[in-house]
Amino acid sequence: MYLTIEELSEKTRIKIPTIRYYERSAVITPDKRSADSKAKYAESDVLRLHFLRYGRSVGLVLAEIRAVLEMSSVGSSEELDVFAKFIADRAASLQLLSETIKGISTKIRRGETNEIQVLTDLAHLRSDLASLTSVESDVATEPEKPMRKRSSIPPK
């Protein structure tokens, strides 16, 4: 069963212009067009948009979400493992940032710090994070690669 863009919007609670943006960004692709030239979307597009909304809510950027969806659809477990490590490293980094900010907040409440000390504490986060993770993730430093669009036409 296929959905119109209006039905997809209603089912996912995502506005039509946003769905069109995700379509242009190759996150979703209409499976077929009807006789009246309207795009038709599959249930997989509903699931993709639900994951996209979740991914955005936890801080993933569109390129990361697209990459996870693509790696999952082609069954690339090795790439997914690398991305999972990247996410774990990011989580450790965010945990360290949270703890540092809590510590700064406590020092401010007690009147035990000044702007230079706060900035010093924040600047030391990078070296503190390096000691937490033995190897920094290559995923974070790789330039973004353009995503391959789903196509029914095999490559030449």
TrEMBL record:
Biased composition annotated in UniProt, kind: Basic residues: 147-156
UniProt-listed InterPro entries: DNA-bd_dom_put_sf (IPR009061), MerR-type_HTH_dom (IPR000551), MerR_fam (IPR047057)
Coiled-coil residue windows: none
Span of domain HTH merR-type: 1-71
Repressor among keywords: yes
Statement: the UniProt record of this protein carries the keyword DNA-binding: yes
Alphabetical keyword list: DNA-binding, Repressor, Transcription, Transcription regulation
Organism: Microvirga terrestris
Disordered, as annotated region: 134-156
Domain of life of the source: Bacteria
Name of this protein: MerR family transcriptional regulator
Classification via Gene3D superfamilies: 1.10.1660.10
